[in-house]
């Protein structure tokens, strides 16, 4: 078993620590989300209604596209199903909002802890020279002029995004395929 002193003696010890902490944080955040959201009956019913509406909408659109002359009644039914899907997606986003605050607090505390542990320390070397904005993010808080130096903040950010997204997919907590609208859906071209 690797101890912290063994990790610090490794060439990539700091990087491995940041990645490990990112994995642990993702697991904790998904556990919090499961407790506050995913195990509740409200979430399960919203998710099933979104899945049903998305499937129904997909079937209606394929039927309509198969028939060249689309009737107005079919178009109205499709619009009703689309609006129902948007409403359910918005409700799901609002439902997830409460756990989002708790998860944000956890991430804020972990980021502050990591920031104090790795302040001004190079934790990784990038295999490329980043450009403009990416370089400002990857070199944040570091001394020196080597653009391939990578700060803890950049590595943690990349790990958090990729690990949490993949963990959600693995555990089956990824948003339903029809729930892409979120709190602020794109405006409908038909109504504008």
TrEMBL record:
Superkingdom in the source lineage? Eukaryota
Subcellular location(s): the record lists:
Endoplasmic reticulum membrane
Q: Which GO terms describe its cellular component?
A: endoplasmic reticulum membrane
The UniProt entry lists membrane topology as: Multi-pass membrane protein
Membrane-crossing residues? 16-38, 100-118
Mind telling me which Pfam families this protein's record contains? EMC3_TMCO1 (PF01956)
Q: Name one GO biological process term.
A: endoplasmic reticulum calcium ion homeostasis
GO molecular function terms here? calcium channel activity
Keyword Glycoprotein carried by entry: no
Q: Which UniProt keywords apply?
A: Calcium, Calcium channel, Calcium transport, Coiled coil, Endoplasmic reticulum, Ion channel, Ion transport, Membrane, Transmembrane, Transmembrane helix, Transport
State its role: Calcium-selective channel required to prevent calcium stores from overfilling.
Q: Which family does it belong to?
A: Belongs to the TMCO1 family.
Indicate what this protein is called per its UniProt record: Calcium load-activated calcium channel
Q: Which organism is it from?
A: Trema orientale
Lineage, opening ranks: Eukaryota, Viridiplantae, Streptophyta, Embryophyta, Tracheophyta
